[in-house]
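--- STAGE predict ---
source: upstream dedup step, 1 unique chain passed
mode: sequence only
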Amino acid sequence: LGLVVNIAAFLALHNRDADDLNMRAATLHVLTDLFGSIAAIAAALIIASTGWALIDPLLSLALAALVGRSAIHLIRETAHILMQGAPPEIDVKELTSELSLAAPGIVGIHDLKVWQLTENEPCLTMHVQLDGGADRSKVLSTMKTILDERYRITSSTIQLDENHHCADCEASSVEMAPAALQSVETSQPTSSVRLAGGAATA
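--- STAGE serialize ---
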């Protein structure tokens, strides 16, 4: 009965939403129970026919190794999202280069950061420097369209700066105290690049 229920549950969950971590975790849980039922039946038949009792722990170890490998991969993906890491399928340098050529009047892009809130919800923030004659509405609309259609980024905050004036950059250039400098983290979970005039800098 348990085997039949596990098979039905697995069929109901399998490929329902391969990109949903919760669904994949539920499928892995059901799959563990399914393999456990199969292993228990197989061990019982072997022990009944041959008397070889060692098969039971051997099958248990094999099942644990098989499921453990998938579980570790799932945990790594979950930790990456919890740390707000950059989506692995997005090339940040390519994204920045494409956006810098999105519309006339774009002088440069900097402080671009992209991260994940969930496996299906990437987010982006960036500053865009414009020359005096740029059409702000067109630049913003074109960039939003590229982010949505090509990179599935529907949640973005874009700050438009004109004439090389960036209030945030000026504020961040204020000299920091030595104690504050020591507390600055050298690595960030989100992926970021600075691009000025189309060239990436470290």
